[in-house]
Design brief:
- The protein is mainly α and 426 residues long.
- It has a single domain (2-424), classed as Orthogonal Bundle (Proton glutamate symport protein).
- The chain has 21 helices and no strands.
- The protein has helices at residues 2-5, 8-29, 32-73, 76-108, 130-135, 142-148, 151-168, 173-193, 197-212, 215-219, 221-245, 251-268, 275-285, 290-303, 306-322, 329-344, 352-363, 371-376, 378-403, 409-413, 421-424.
- The longest helix has 42 residues, at 32-73.
């Protein structure tokens, strides 16, 4: 009976641990054919259904929450000010993230002694012209962007709609009410879907461990360790340091309230899928006003990819070390620039960061085949970098809200840290 009364966050954490244990046992003890069948008939379908349910509401939730957020800010000058602050925070922390990744990769040398497979085949991505990034942000057909799930274009269109509603004012207030009601509907759907979270988390993590095995993980353990070390240092120094020094907020309080979102992001490996849970935590646990959070969180899930930037920095140095190539200061500066731009354009879905890594590698003239080794453990790396990405979104949101006097400090400092309201209300 206690298990059924347990809050959802604890259930998700237990499911995560059980999934890891099941994956190890399945990989080591089950015959290969049985292991593949379990994944094919059970783990893959359960994980995919849960993940698809989350993705089902991400686009409409981002669209309507941004309209409501932009419209509720009201003052276009304030909207511009908030946009400038949050984008500056995202770009600054992303650049710093690449530097941290390069620092640890150069010091710890994760690629030394690794042998690259000769038959490696990797999908490549050409470096985009920098101005194309800005041109492609504006949708020529917003409905096509909604269908395709092009988040940058959806964000731009939603902001335009929200600002226009704010400018027109009273005559279109019924339209804003409809958008608010639709936003509530999709939040409620997320609450319902979250009932399945323990099953989805168990299936997703068990599939990764059971199929990856321990041999490939052990051979690339140093790479995994360097990436996770850089992720942790960036979180503690950059994010928690910013909370303390800039926002004068307690990072320990932040962590106690935000760790359930971290667990969810770790298991799904998707910044986009974590948007609803992140929004809820920021508004109801950290005290950020909805007008700020509904704008900054979806934006961050699209352009703030510090974890991805770290992986691209470490990955580039790793490949150079595997092939015995020395990268000079100019090349490493190019990695910082390329990784920062690439992270902005990286979709908030599992695995997208590795494809973008090919752009960074190509930019500095490294062999593209080297990415094959990273692909072997990409999902393990993806889980960690997603946690950093979503944490950065929340930290930036709290800092901007504090500077705009849109943060309820009493709620932030309260001791109500057991669960997020999304999970508590289920």
């Amino acid at each position: 009976m206690k298990l059924f009364k347990m809050n959802l966050t604890k259930k998700i954490f237990i499911a995560l641990v059980l999934g890891i244990l099941f994956g190890i046992v399945s990989n080591l003890l089950l015959p290969k054919g049985v292991n593949i069948s379990v994944n094919k008939w059970v783990l893959t379908p359960v994980g995919s259904i849960f993940f698809n349910l989350i993705k089902m509401v991400v686009v409409p939730l981002v669209f309507f929450s941004l309209i409501c957020g932009s419209a509720s800010i009201g003052d276009t000058k304030k909207l511009g000010r908030v946009s400038g602050k949050i984008i500056s925070f995202y770009l600054a922390t992303t650049s710093f993230a690449v530097v941290i990744g390069l620092f640890f990769a150069n010091i710890l040398k994760p690629g030394v002694g690794i042998v690259i497979p000769t038959n490696a085949v990797v999908e490549t991505t050409k470096p985009p012209f920098i101005m194309d990034i800005f041109v492609n942000m504006v949708p020529s057909n917003p409905f096509d962007a909604l269908v395709k799930g092009d988040m940058l274009q959806i964000i731009v269109f939603a902001i335009f709609v929200g600002v226009t509603i704010s400018i027109i004012g009273e005559p279109v207030k019924p339209l804003l009410n409809i958008c608010n009601q639709l936003n509530e509907v999709f939040l409620k759907i997320i609450g319902t879907v979250m009932k399945l979270a323990p099953y989805g988390v168990f299936a997703l993590i068990a599939k990764v461990i059971s199929l990856q095995g321990l041999d490939i993980l052990m051979s690339l353990l140093k790479l995994i360790g360097v990436v996770y070390l850089a992720l942790i240092v960036h979180c503690l120094v950059t994010y928690f340091g910013s909370l303390k020094l800039i926002g004068h907020l307690n990072p320990i309080t932040f962590f106690k309230k935000f760790w359930p979102v971290m667990v969810f992001g770790f298991s799904t490996s998707s910044s986009s899928a974590t948007i609803p849970v992140n929004l809820d935590a920021c508004e109801n646990k950290l005290g950020v006003k909805g007008s700020i959070a509904s704008f900054t969180i979806p934006l961050g899930a699209t352009i703030n990819m510090d974890g991805t930037a770290i992986m691209q920095g470490v990955g580039a140095i790793f490949i150079a070390q595997v092939y015995g190539i020395e990268l000079n200061l100019t090349s490493q500066m190019m990695i910082i620039l390329s990784a920062t731009l690439a992270s902005i354009g990286t979709a908030g879905v599992p695995g997208a960061g590795t494809i973008m890594l090919s752009m960074v590698v190509t930019q500095v003239g490294l062999p593209i085949e080297g990415i094959a080794l990273i692909l072997a453990v990409d999902r393990i790396l993806d889980m960690g970098r997603t946690v950093l990405n979503i944490t950065g979104d929340a930290v930036g949101t709290c800092l901007v809200a504090k500077s705009e006097k849109e943060l309820d400090v009493d709620i932030f400092n309260s001791d109500d840290s057991d669960d997020s309201s999304v999970t508590a209300n289920i």
